[in-house]
Design goal:
about 280 residues; mainly alpha; two-stranded antiparallel sheet; 2 strands; about 70% helix; globular
Length: about 280
Amino acid sequence: MRVDRIIVLAILIALTQGFLLVIDPTSGPFSNLVSQDYQFPLTVVLLAALVAITSGIADATVRSHPQIYLLKLPVIRARNGHKFEFAPFAWILPSMLVIGTYLFLRLFDSPPVQVVGTIISSFVLLVVIIAQYYTVGRQERLYGWANIGLNLATYIAGFLIFSAIYVNKWRALISAPLVGLVTFFLTYEILRQSKANNNRLVIYSLVSAFILAEVTWALNYWLLPVLIGGIMLLLIFYVVAGILQAYLTNNLNRAVLREYLIVSLVSLVLIVFSIISNPQITS
């Protein structure tokens, strides 16, 4: 990947990330010009547009790799004989990061925090898209580091979205399916690196989504702090996705189970501590 392309990517990502921060119909500088009845629909439209732009950037970057022909990409054939390839796997993580960043930054009613958060998230998005580029060909010297970076970014996206969902304290019929849907995509992102067939990836991702949805249902009955709730869901997601990934890659052994057992114990300690410090139960 050339340096000039990286610079263009950085500019595009910064512009797309900063766009919604300024135009945000609910809290941006021009929010007083938008009727309250139209704020939510307009926010959804703008966020969807931002996700589409970011996904397009990621898609074009991945497909510019010289070894992209090694991957079986979906193809749309036009009537005139032209065909259009696209890389859906490249959309998942950038989209989750865009949505997670927006939802999480809205928890802070402080312009400096939102600006700094947007800058950091733009940098993370840039790293993610470049890392996706270097995971196309396994012979790339940065392949291992790129996979590690994508995994870290996946967990960051999970924490941002889980926290944003948990803070709203929606009914379980709303929050549990939302967490399950997000978990499905994030688990798929992690497991796809195992190169297993797509049917197995979908089934395992559904299992992970069901587990996290059930956990969310239970956590909704406790008044946990926002960050603690997000961290709890993240730790459980880390354990579930990690065990599934180890099983798919035939690396599930005592050492791996011991690692996830320790993380599970840490999660239980966090729950107990949060309950002791705030023992109120909400229905």
